[in-house]
Amino acid sequence: MAEPTAELIGSVILPALKLESGRVLRNVRQVYSRYGNPSPDGSNIVVVCHALTGSHRVSGGVRPGSPQPWWEPVVGVHKAIDTSSLCVYCFNVLGSPYGSTSPLSTEPETGRPWGMDFPFFSVRDIVKAEKAALEILGFPRIGAVVGGSLGGMQAIEWGLLYPESVDRIVVIGAPAHLYPQAIAFNEVQRQAIFADPNWNNGRYHDGLPPSKGLAMARMLAMI
Fold first, then answer.
1. Which DSSP string corresponds to the chain?
2. Where are the domain boundaries for CATH 1.10.1740.110 in the chain?
Protein backbone atom coordinates (compact mmCIF):
# COMPACT_ATOMS: atom_id res chain seq x y z
CA MET A 1 0.00 0.00 0.00
CA ALA A 2 1.32 3.44 -0.93
CA GLU A 3 2.27 5.85 1.83
CA PRO A 4 -0.22 8.71 2.39
CA THR A 5 0.72 12.01 0.80
CA ALA A 6 2.62 14.24 3.23
CA GLU A 7 0.23 16.83 4.64
CA LEU A 8 0.77 20.04 6.60
CA ILE A 9 -2.33 21.45 8.32
CA GLY A 10 -2.26 25.07 9.44
CA SER A 11 -4.35 28.19 9.78
CA VAL A 12 -4.15 31.94 9.37
CA ILE A 13 -6.21 34.72 10.94
CA LEU A 14 -7.63 37.50 8.78
CA PRO A 15 -8.00 40.65 10.91
CA ALA A 16 -11.15 41.68 9.03
CA LEU A 17 -13.19 40.42 6.09
CA LYS A 18 -15.78 42.70 4.51
CA LEU A 19 -18.60 40.65 3.02
CA GLU A 20 -20.64 41.50 -0.06
CA SER A 21 -23.54 42.26 2.28
CA GLY A 22 -21.51 45.06 3.88
CA ARG A 23 -21.08 43.17 7.16
CA VAL A 24 -17.55 42.81 8.52
CA LEU A 25 -16.27 39.65 10.19
CA ARG A 26 -13.34 40.11 12.56
CA ASN A 27 -10.52 37.66 13.28
CA VAL A 28 -11.57 35.23 10.57
CA ARG A 29 -9.83 31.88 10.83
CA GLN A 30 -8.87 30.10 7.61
CA VAL A 31 -7.76 26.49 8.06
CA TYR A 32 -5.76 24.92 5.24
CA SER A 33 -3.88 21.80 4.21
CA ARG A 34 -0.67 21.96 2.19
CA TYR A 35 0.91 19.22 0.08
CA GLY A 36 4.35 19.69 -1.47
CA ASN A 37 6.69 22.65 -1.18
CA PRO A 38 5.93 26.11 -2.60
CA SER A 39 8.40 27.92 -4.81
CA PRO A 40 9.42 31.36 -3.52
CA ASP A 41 7.35 33.14 -6.19
CA GLY A 42 4.30 30.87 -5.77
CA SER A 43 4.33 29.83 -9.43
CA ASN A 44 4.01 26.11 -8.59
CA ILE A 45 1.07 26.60 -6.20
CA VAL A 46 -2.24 24.98 -7.13
CA VAL A 47 -5.18 26.02 -4.96
CA VAL A 48 -7.71 23.19 -4.86
CA CYS A 49 -11.19 24.41 -3.87
CA HIS A 50 -13.48 21.92 -2.19
CA ALA A 51 -17.19 21.31 -2.76
CA LEU A 52 -20.05 21.88 -0.31
CA THR A 53 -19.52 18.79 1.86
CA GLY A 54 -15.74 18.60 1.45
CA SER A 55 -12.98 20.04 3.59
CA HIS A 56 -9.39 21.25 3.39
CA ARG A 57 -8.22 17.61 3.60
CA VAL A 58 -7.67 16.80 -0.06
CA SER A 59 -5.23 13.96 0.58
CA GLY A 60 -2.99 12.67 3.37
CA GLY A 61 -4.70 9.48 4.52
CA VAL A 62 -7.17 8.85 7.33
CA ARG A 63 -6.66 10.82 10.55
CA PRO A 64 -8.77 9.99 13.63
CA GLY A 65 -11.10 12.86 14.46
CA SER A 66 -10.49 14.60 11.12
CA PRO A 67 -12.60 14.67 7.96
CA GLN A 68 -11.81 12.06 5.34
CA PRO A 69 -9.58 13.17 2.46
CA TRP A 70 -11.69 13.46 -0.67
CA TRP A 71 -9.24 13.59 -3.64
CA GLU A 72 -6.56 11.11 -2.63
CA PRO A 73 -6.34 9.46 -6.10
CA VAL A 74 -5.69 12.82 -7.76
CA VAL A 75 -3.34 14.74 -5.44
CA GLY A 76 0.05 13.33 -4.46
CA VAL A 77 3.46 12.28 -5.72
CA HIS A 78 3.27 11.10 -9.36
CA LYS A 79 -0.50 11.62 -9.44
CA ALA A 80 -2.50 13.94 -11.71
CA ILE A 81 -1.64 16.93 -9.51
CA ASP A 82 1.93 15.89 -8.79
CA THR A 83 3.16 17.18 -5.45
CA SER A 84 6.75 16.22 -6.26
CA SER A 85 6.84 19.39 -8.37
CA LEU A 86 3.64 21.24 -7.47
CA CYS A 87 2.43 22.60 -4.14
CA VAL A 88 -1.26 22.21 -3.32
CA TYR A 89 -3.12 24.44 -0.88
CA CYS A 90 -6.73 23.73 0.02
CA PHE A 91 -8.58 26.11 2.32
CA ASN A 92 -11.52 25.04 4.43
CA VAL A 93 -14.17 27.44 3.16
CA LEU A 94 -15.74 30.18 5.22
CA GLY A 95 -18.82 28.75 6.97
CA SER A 96 -17.62 25.13 6.94
CA PRO A 97 -17.72 23.13 10.20
CA TYR A 98 -14.15 21.83 9.80
CA GLY A 99 -12.20 24.60 11.49
CA SER A 100 -12.62 27.87 9.59
CA THR A 101 -14.86 30.62 10.97
CA SER A 102 -18.45 29.38 10.73
CA PRO A 103 -21.80 29.31 12.55
CA LEU A 104 -20.09 26.98 15.05
CA SER A 105 -17.62 29.73 15.98
CA THR A 106 -18.19 31.95 19.00
CA GLU A 107 -19.94 35.25 18.40
CA PRO A 108 -17.89 37.87 20.28
CA GLU A 109 -20.90 39.82 21.58
CA THR A 110 -22.77 36.84 23.08
CA GLY A 111 -20.06 34.30 23.84
CA ARG A 112 -22.23 31.63 22.18
CA PRO A 113 -21.99 29.95 18.78
CA TRP A 114 -23.20 32.18 15.95
CA GLY A 115 -25.77 29.68 14.73
CA MET A 116 -28.37 31.31 12.48
CA ASP A 117 -27.03 34.76 13.39
CA PHE A 118 -23.95 34.13 11.26
CA PRO A 119 -23.87 36.71 8.44
CA PHE A 120 -24.99 35.71 4.97
CA PHE A 121 -22.00 35.28 2.68
CA SER A 122 -21.33 34.46 -0.96
CA VAL A 123 -18.92 32.41 -3.06
CA ARG A 124 -17.16 35.70 -3.76
CA ASP A 125 -16.65 36.20 -0.01
CA ILE A 126 -15.16 32.69 0.24
CA VAL A 127 -12.66 33.52 -2.51
CA LYS A 128 -11.77 36.88 -0.96
CA ALA A 129 -10.93 35.04 2.27
CA GLU A 130 -8.76 32.52 0.40
CA LYS A 131 -6.90 35.28 -1.43
CA ALA A 132 -6.32 37.21 1.80
CA ALA A 133 -5.00 34.05 3.47
CA LEU A 134 -2.54 33.45 0.63
CA GLU A 135 -1.36 37.05 0.90
CA ILE A 136 -0.63 36.49 4.60
CA LEU A 137 1.24 33.28 3.72
CA GLY A 138 3.40 35.33 1.34
CA PHE A 139 1.96 34.34 -2.05
CA PRO A 140 0.26 37.22 -3.89
CA ARG A 141 0.44 35.26 -7.16
CA ILE A 142 -0.15 31.54 -7.78
CA GLY A 143 -0.02 29.08 -10.65
CA ALA A 144 -3.54 27.67 -10.78
CA VAL A 145 -6.92 27.21 -9.11
CA VAL A 146 -8.84 23.94 -9.53
CA GLY A 147 -12.30 23.06 -8.25
CA GLY A 148 -15.48 21.11 -8.87
CA SER A 149 -19.09 21.98 -8.00
CA LEU A 150 -18.93 24.70 -5.32
CA GLY A 151 -15.16 24.50 -5.76
CA GLY A 152 -15.61 25.20 -9.47
CA MET A 153 -17.71 28.26 -8.64
CA GLN A 154 -14.80 29.46 -6.52
CA ALA A 155 -12.41 28.89 -9.43
CA ILE A 156 -14.65 31.04 -11.65
CA GLU A 157 -14.63 33.81 -9.04
CA TRP A 158 -10.85 33.61 -8.83
CA GLY A 159 -10.68 34.26 -12.56
CA LEU A 160 -13.12 37.17 -12.32
CA LEU A 161 -11.69 38.83 -9.22
CA TYR A 162 -7.97 38.17 -9.52
CA PRO A 163 -6.98 37.54 -13.16
CA GLU A 164 -3.60 39.15 -12.50
CA SER A 165 -2.91 36.80 -9.56
CA VAL A 166 -3.52 33.36 -11.07
CA ASP A 167 -2.14 31.89 -14.31
CA ARG A 168 -4.80 29.21 -14.91
CA ILE A 169 -8.19 28.11 -13.63
CA VAL A 170 -9.76 24.67 -14.02
CA VAL A 171 -13.53 24.51 -13.56
CA ILE A 172 -15.17 21.09 -13.15
CA GLY A 173 -18.95 20.61 -13.18
CA ALA A 174 -19.84 24.13 -12.07
CA PRO A 175 -22.11 26.85 -13.47
CA ALA A 176 -21.43 30.57 -13.62
CA HIS A 177 -24.84 31.08 -11.98
CA LEU A 178 -27.70 28.94 -10.67
CA TYR A 179 -30.77 28.30 -12.80
CA PRO A 180 -34.31 28.42 -11.33
CA GLN A 181 -34.57 24.64 -10.97
CA ALA A 182 -31.35 24.48 -8.93
CA ILE A 183 -32.53 27.35 -6.72
CA ALA A 184 -35.81 25.48 -6.14
CA PHE A 185 -34.00 22.24 -5.24
CA ASN A 186 -31.79 24.15 -2.79
CA GLU A 187 -34.86 25.57 -1.07
CA VAL A 188 -36.43 22.11 -0.76
CA GLN A 189 -33.18 20.87 0.82
CA ARG A 190 -33.24 23.71 3.35
CA GLN A 191 -36.85 22.96 4.22
CA ALA A 192 -35.97 19.29 4.79
CA ILE A 193 -33.41 20.37 7.40
CA PHE A 194 -35.79 22.90 8.99
CA ALA A 195 -38.45 20.17 9.34
CA ASP A 196 -36.17 17.96 11.45
CA PRO A 197 -37.30 18.19 15.12
CA ASN A 198 -33.66 18.55 16.17
CA TRP A 199 -33.19 21.68 14.04
CA ASN A 200 -34.21 23.97 16.93
CA ASN A 201 -33.89 27.08 14.76
CA GLY A 202 -30.20 26.35 14.29
CA ARG A 203 -29.48 26.23 18.05
CA TYR A 204 -28.68 22.53 18.28
CA HIS A 205 -25.10 22.88 19.54
CA ASP A 206 -25.93 21.44 22.97
CA GLY A 207 -28.18 18.67 21.65
CA LEU A 208 -28.62 16.29 18.76
CA PRO A 209 -28.00 17.61 15.23
CA PRO A 210 -30.75 17.48 12.56
CA SER A 211 -29.18 14.39 10.99
CA LYS A 212 -32.35 13.02 9.38
CA GLY A 213 -33.17 16.33 7.74
CA LEU A 214 -29.60 16.68 6.50
CA ALA A 215 -29.65 13.13 5.10
CA MET A 216 -32.86 13.92 3.22
CA ALA A 217 -31.34 17.13 1.89
CA ARG A 218 -28.27 15.30 0.59
CA MET A 219 -30.44 12.66 -1.10
CA LEU A 220 -32.30 15.45 -2.89
CA ALA A 221 -28.97 16.97 -3.92
CA MET A 222 -27.95 13.73 -5.64
CA ILE A 223 -31.02 13.65 -7.92
1. -PPPPP-EEEEEEEEEEE-TTS-EEEEEEEEEEEES---TTSTTEEEEEP-TT--S--SS---TTSPPPS-TTTEETTSSEETTT-EEEEEPPTT-SSSSSSTTSBPTTTSSB-GGGSPP--HHHHHHHHHHHHHHHT-SSEEEEEEETHHHHHHHHHHHH-TTTEEEEEEES--SS--HHHHHHHHHHHHHHHTSTT-GGG--TTS---HHHHHHHHHHHT-
2. 179-223
Residue 3: the pLDDT is 67
- Split the chain (223 residues) into runs of 10 and give each run's mean pLDDT: 81 98 97 97 98 96 93 96 98 97 93 94 98 98 97 98 98 93 94 96 90 95 87
Could you count the other beta carbons within 10 Å of the beta carbon of residue 98? 16
Evaluate whether 161 touches 169 at the Cβ level (below 8 Å): no
Superfamily of domain 8-177: Alpha/Beta hydrolase fold, catalytic domain (3.40.50.1820)
- Global confidence as pTM: 0.94
What pLDDT is attached to residue 216? 96
CATH of 179-223 among 1.10.1740.110, 2.60.40.3080, 3.90.1200.10, 3.60.40.10: 1.10.1740.110
